[in-house]
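Please think about what follows:
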Amino acid sequence: MKFHVLGAVSGLALVASGAALAGPEAEVLHWWTSGGEAKSVAVLQEEFAANGGTWTDMPVAGGGGDAAMTALRARVLSGNAPTAVQLKGPAIQEWYEEGVLADISAVAEAEGWADVLPASIAGHMKCEGTWCAAPVNVHRVDWIWANADVLEANGIAMPSSWAEFNAAAEKLQAAGIIPLAHGGQAWQDATVFEAVALGILGADGFHKAFVELDEATLKSDGMKAVFDQMRTLRGFVDPNFPGRDWNLATAMVMNGEAAFQIMGDWAKGEFLAAGKAPGEDFLCASTPGDGFLYNVDSFAMFAVDGAEKEAGQQLLAKLIVGKNFQKVFNLNKGSIPARVDVALDEFDSCAHLSASDMAASSEGGSLLPSYAHGMALRGAQAGAITDVVTAHFNSDMSSEDAVQQLVTAVANSM
C-alpha cells in the first residue's frame, strides 16, 4: 500500500488558508550540522516560517548520514515518522518500497518541476512515476581543494594528473607540510576512492564498476591501479587522521596546516562560511581525469497524519524547489542549483566551473552518480565496496588482495 497526501486543490488550499488550520507544520530530519551546512538549512527554516509554517528541527550529526538513517528507522518502526527527511538516490526507492512515503505529485505538477530539473536528477525523485522527493542541489564529489598560499610558497600548481599530485605531495612532505588533509571515516575513504577510480578507470569503467557492478571491471588491472594510488595517498595523510570529521580536515587546509583535500563541494561551503575567497585564499579543480560525479541532496516526504503536517509537506516541497531557495541555499552550501533556470550571476568561479562541467559531462555521457554518497547503488552493495576500501586504506593489504576481496564482497552483497 502506498500513502498519499492531500490532492492538489485541497492541499494548496490548506497551505494558503490560515483560517483552516493552525498552520503548516514540519519536523525535518537532516544531517546538516557543520558551519556551512547549518547556515544553509537555516535559510529553509526562515522561508518556511515566513510562509506561516512551524518548523521542528531534528539534526543528527555525522557527515555521511549513517546516524540519521539509524534515527529514522527507529522513528518509522515506532509509527512516528518525521514529516520530511534528507534522503537521496536508491534510499528513496527503498523507503518507497516499504510503503511509508507520501506522494507529492500535486506540488511537483503545479510547480512544473519536470520542465526545470535535468531528467537524470528528476529520475531519482520519482517512485513508480509519482513524485516522492524534492531535490535541493547538485554537489560535485570529485574536487581537489587547496590552500593557495601554501601552493604558491612551494612553487606548486594545481595537479592535472595523479602523477603530478604525487610529485607535489612528496615536495610538500619534504617541506614539513601535510600534503593531504583527510578524515579516517569510511565514507571519506570512499569519497577519495571513487575520485581516484573515475580518473584511472574513466567514465565508462567507473559506470561498469560502480553502477553495473561488472565483475570483469572490478577485478581488472585498472582497479588494481586504483588501489595502488590509494596506497600512495595513504602515505600523504597525517597520523592523526582516524575519526576526524571532514570539516576539520577542511579547516586544516584553510589554516595552512595541510595543502590539499579531496572532498565534495560542501567543503567550499566551509571556506565561504569562514570568509575565504576562491582563487585567492583557496583553489578548486576537478580531480584528475574526465567526468563528473554527482551527489544530489533531496528531501523525501513520509506518510504522516494530520492536515497541518500534510500542508507542511506541500509547502516545504514547493519552497525547496523554488528559485529563491535554490539560489540562496546553494550559495551557502557550495553546491549548484538542481533547477537549470536559476541564474548563476552571484555564484563564484568554482560553481561556474561545476555548472559548465556538469553540462559538458551530461552531453558527453560522463555525468555519473556517486557510489560513495548513495546515488549509484543500494546500501548493501555500496557498503560492501566501502568495507574493502577502508580495510585496504587502514592496513598493509596488497592491491591484488583488495581487488579479490572487492569481487567477493560485491558478489556476496547481491
The longest strand covers residues 25-30.
